[in-house]
Write a structure and sequence with these properties.
9 helices, about 240 residues, mainly alpha, Cytochrome Bc1 Complex, Chain D, domain 2, binds heme C, about 35% helix
């Protein structure tokens, strides 16, 4: 009697194990994932119609129907535009290889006028100065001599005097937008129009004005040394 019970027990165990093992191989019963959108979240554009990633059925969320299915709402009345002058440069967001970086840097030296309205120049320079003091002077110094507070403290070095560099308003704008060697990009801190205002301030305060921009002949003089080894460069072109 005892022997038979043991045999039944063994058979049950073997059949049971086989059943479990084989059933997990079946294509019809793939492993379950509860709440798949928690494990595999779907990035979606809040201003576009929301798509259901796991089924083909139409997602009609009543609250958003009048918004074309978008869950995000458009800007409310009175929203302040990020780029009121329309000066945003889409290329500022482009990842560049060092060769491209140098090519565009050289080209930027040819730009000797800002796209800002010359009628507002005095106001633009005043704002440029404020932003320069807030954003750049910690390194470059209020006098543009490369002796900002963090340089004087000894925490950072290698900041040039503007007087020692070949600059045009275009190249200052390019460098503050894309960075250069150990200087990072400040595009994230300054709005498109303000980038030109800071450049305008630097040219008028430290380089004797826009018209005093050096000849283009020297354009290749500076980048060649620092940028010679593309792999080692840290121009931080990806924004
Ligand atoms: C963290 C310190 C730091 C800050 C902040 C900084 N810079 Fe620089 N900047 C540097 C360094 C270092 C260099 C030298 C880069 C090189 O090797 O050519 C430099 C170089 C420059 C040059 C010369 C580039 C050339 O073509 O030779 C310009 C123009 C310039 N910075 C503008 C700015 C402006 C405008 C700001 C503020 C928006 C700013 N920098 C903020 C560190 C800084």
């Amino acid at each position: 009697m005892l022997k038979m019970t043991k045999t039944i027990f063994k058979i049950t165990a073997i059949v049971g194990c086989a059943a479990i093992t084989l059933s997990s191989c079946s294509n019809e019963n793939p492993p379950l994932v509860y709440f798949p959108d928690m494990y595999f979240p779907v990035a979606y554009d809040p201003l576009a119609k929301a798509q259901d990633a796991y089924s083909k059925h139409e997602n009609e969320i009543p609250a958003f129907v009048k918004n074309n299915g978008a869950t995000g709402l458009g800007p409310i009345d009175g929203t302040v535009a990020q780029n009121p002058e329309g000066l945003a440069d889409p290329a500022a967001n482009k990842a560049m290889v060092p060769l491209e970086y140098n090519e565009f840097y050289d080209a930027s030296k040819l730009i000797t006028a800002s796209p800002l309205d010359p009628a507002n120049q005095a106001k633009d320079i005043t704002r440029g100065k404020l932003l320069y003091e807030q954003t750049c002077s910690a390194c470059h110094g209020s006098a543009g001599d490369g002796q900002g507070s963090i340089v004087v403290s000894g925490a950072y070095s290698g900041v040039p005097k503007y007087a020692d560099r070949e600059l045009t308003i275009g190249s200052v704008h390019y460098v503050l937008t894309h960075g250069r060697n150990s200087m990072g990009s400040y595009a994230g801190q300054l709005k498109p129009g303000d980038r030109w205002r800071v450049s305008l301030y630097i040219m008028s305060e430290f380089k004797g004005g826009l018209s005093a921009a050096p000849a283009v002949v020297a354009a290749n003089a500076t980048p060649a040394t620092d940028m010679a080894a593309p792999a080692a460069s840290s121009t931080s072109p990806k924004k």
